[in-house]
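Title: Comparing notes on inverse folding

I've been comparing how different people in this forum approach sequence design from structure. To keep things fair, I'm posting one structure and asking everyone to reply with a full sequence. Here's the target:
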């Protein structure tokens, strides 16, 4: 290979990496938009369900997923993006995805938050290549009075999952089988 063709190859490779970075959202303002959605989701939780303040105060970290879209017709799937906050400061961005098979038809959107109640649970989540919500999580559901069902059982759980803001035509929203992956928005 001649000196010219090596330089050309390096230049083309560098340009390709630069374009790939642009396509991945680096420098595109994606993080700022996602942080704004997380801020709005956090404010909604505090306004609509005041009991979440107690959970937020006890949690060592909270993963907010402001918008998850789910659709299915026999085969189904869902996808959303959010941010992990520690002391209400964003430290990482994540996507969540799931797939399902079965009797299902329709679509819905919802939000959810994962409250990491222990340092080991948070460390396991951040260290994992792709983390799935497992049996170590408890689900807290908001009641009509605006309180969160975080009793002694859930407050001792390493992870508390809260699903809220459902809108659509699929009965129920589930986080089982969902995979969380660190992303660059």
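Reply #1:
Here's my take.
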């Amino acid at each position: 290979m001649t000196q010219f063709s090596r330089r050309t190859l390096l230049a083309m490779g560098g340009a390709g990496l630069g374009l790939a970075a642009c396509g991945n959202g680096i420098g595109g303002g994606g993080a700022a938009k996602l942080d704004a959605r997380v801020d709005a989701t956090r404010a909604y939780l505090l306004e609509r369900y005041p009991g979440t303040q107690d959970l937020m105060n006890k949690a060592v970290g909270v993963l907010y997923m402001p918008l998850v879209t789910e659709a299915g017709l026999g085969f189904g799937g869902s996808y959303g993006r959010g941010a992990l906050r520690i002391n209400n400061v964003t430290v990482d961005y994540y996507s969540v995805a799931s797939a399902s098979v079965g009797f299902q038809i329709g679509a819905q959107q919802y939000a959810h938050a994962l409250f990491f109640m222990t340092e080991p649970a948070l460390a396991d989540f951040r260290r994992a290549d792709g983390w799935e919500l497992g049996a170590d999580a408890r689900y807290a559901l908001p009641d009509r009075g605006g309180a969160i069902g975080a009793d002694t059982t859930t407050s001792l759980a390493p992870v508390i999952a809260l699903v809220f803001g459902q809108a659509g035509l699929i009965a129920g929203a589930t986080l089982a089988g969902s995979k969380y992956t660190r992303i660059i928005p």
